[in-house]
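Thought: the user asked what Inner-membrane translocator looks like in 3D. I have the sequence; next I should run the structure tool and report back without guessing.
Action: structure_tool
Action Input:
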Amino acid sequence: MEYLLHLFVLICIYTILAQSLSLVAGYSGQVSLAHAGFYGLGAYTTALMSIHWETPAMLNIPVAMLLSGGLAWVVARVAAKTVDDYYIIITLGIQVVIYSIMNNWQSVTHGPLGIPGIPAFAIVPGVELESKFAYCLLGMTLAGLVWGVLHRLMHSPFGRVLIALSEDEVYTKSLGKDVAGAKTVSFVISGMLASIAGVLYAHYISYIDPSSFTVDESIFILSIVIIGGMRNLLHIFCAAAFLVLLPEALRFVGMPSSIAANMRQIFYGLALILVFYRMRSTNQKLSINMEVQRDIENKG
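Observation:
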C-alpha cells in the first residue's frame, strides 16, 4: 500500500509539471525543453531555504515561484523572438545551462553529491507532513489548484489569444495582438507553476541531485503532454499515470528491470517524433490556407 501511495505522489508531481508545460506547448504552440530546469530550481530553492534558514515549505513556494518566474522572463524575452526549431534549441540550451550550474556550483548545490536531509513539507513551523497519505492529499490539492488556475486562464481573453497564437501567429499579430508579450507571459507562468512541483518533490524525497533535472526529464514531461493531449488538462493526469506506472507494470508481467526502465526512453523518442511531425503538418496546413485565401482575394 505504501508503494502505491508513493507512485500516486509521483503521478501528482508529474501532473503539475505536464499541466504547466501544456500552457506553453499546447496553448501557445511553443515546445519548451527547459521545463526540468524550472522544476529543479524550485527543488533547490526550497532545499537550501529549509536547511539553512529552516523556513516552512509554504513560505518557500512563493520564493521559488518568483525565482523561476524571473529566470523564465529572461529566457522568454529572447526565445519569444524566435519560432519552431529555433525556439526549441534556445530552451534546450537554457536547460543545459541550468543543469550545469546545479552540477558544478558545489559550494551551493553540492554538485553531483546532491543535498540530503531535506526536512518534511511544513505548512507552518512545527507542523510537518509525515505519512505518504498526507503527501497524496497535498499532491492532489496542488494539482487541483494548478488545474483551476490554468482552466480559468484558458477561458479568459488572454487564453483565447494564446490559442489563436498557436493556430496562426502571423494572423494573430495582424489583429493587433501583442504576440511577443503573450509568449513571454505564458512562459513565465509555466515556469512558476513548474517550481511548485519541485518544492513538493524535494520535501517528499528529502534528497535532490542534478540527475533528477536533466533534459531527459524535460522530454519525459513533454511526452506526458503529447500523450495526454496538448490542450487537455484532465487527460494529462491519465497520461502521467500511464508513463509513471508503465515500468512497474512491465516488471509485474516479468520483463527484466533493465528493459522495463528503458521502455520510457522509447516513448520519449516517439513523442519527439510526433511533436516535429505535428509541427510540420500544422505549418503545411497554414501555408495551404494562406494560398487559398490569397487566391480568393485575387479573384475577388
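Thought: the tool returned a structure. Summarizing for the user.
Final Answer: Structure for Inner-membrane translocator predicted. The chain has twelve helices and two strands. The chain has two domains: 1-252, 255-299.
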